């Protein structure tokens, strides 16, 4: 199987799992896997000590943007929304329905993860700059998660967000890991949403659900969130030097690899929008890499043959792991272990693909121009 060959639906079901009931949707959101979005906690005392003085002018300008809240009235379903749902949803095949539901559930979980993390930071710090930022970002992510949940409720598969907050496991990350991972998550979220929006803007006949009409202004929230973490990192340049360069490389690769494998379990989703999964992912990688030059001193070479070969291999190993898990028994367990070991080896190969050096610009902030 090559990276450009769509998975057949049997393989997709192995990887994403069919969802038919609200109980199954909630269980999927709670479950932690290598590919699923996680909930995080961190060292709040360390965050409380952050100093944004070196970027004060840019920081204050950003806070005014948050305060202006240009999306305060955006996340409302208009009269056409319900009509489009009634018209378009019956046209989806059962396979396509499952891929779209997986997209909605994982997207909601990711958005709600940000909401919880930012709200917990807000409650546990006294630093006025950090408290103000986290208040605004939690507000935005709450809107995003709620809006997605409304669409899940159209399928009678709404997620109980209160229960999700209580029952999903939390992962502790050091603050600097939060900065790297969250910055990348927000920027790649922007790149994903704007790439989909631009494609469906050019080809409205391929827009199979009305939620995509909201993506342009929606992803500008994601972009601004990433800008906030860029300012935090540039205010503390020690985060971008020495051994931290290796952590930056790790998080770039981890975010890219997770997205690539997850997206290759949704071939019909991308085909329906007029994409091919590999082309879509490399478009998103390229946009994210261009944006990240504002803050990261290195850039992963996404066109390197080894990088591309390893991404393909990770998809194959993910399918192999799912097959072995379904098989069960001793041989199934051995198959899972073998795939896991080979996946770690493949990721290690990715880690040592040469990177491109990047001289950081004097002006930290960039415009959402994609």
Written overview of the protein:
There is one protein chain. With 370 residues, the protein is mostly helical. The chain has a single domain, classed as Ribonucleotide Reductase, subunit A (Orthogonal Bundle), CATH 1.10.620. Helices cover 67% and strands 3% of the residues. It contains 15 helices and four strands. The protein has helices at residues 9-16, 22-30, 44-48, 56-68, 79-88, 94-124, 128-154, 161-167, 175-202, 215-235, 244-263, 267-272, 277-292, 305-327, 329-351, and strands spanning 39-41, 170-172, 298-300, 355-357. It is globular and about 55 Å long. The model is unreliable at 1-6 (pLDDT under 50).
Q: Provide the CATH topology.
A: Ribonucleotide Reductase, subunit A
Spatial strand arrangement across the major sheet: 1-2
Q: What's the β-strand tally?
A: 4
Total number of distinct structural domains: 1
Q: What structural category arises from helix and sheet content?
A: mainly alpha
CATH class: Mainly Alpha
Number of helices: 15
Quick one: biggest sheet? 2 strands, parallel
The topology string of helices and strands comes to HHEHHHHHHEHHHHHEHHE
Query: In CATH terms, what is the architecture?
Result: Orthogonal Bundle
- Beta-strand percent range: under 5%
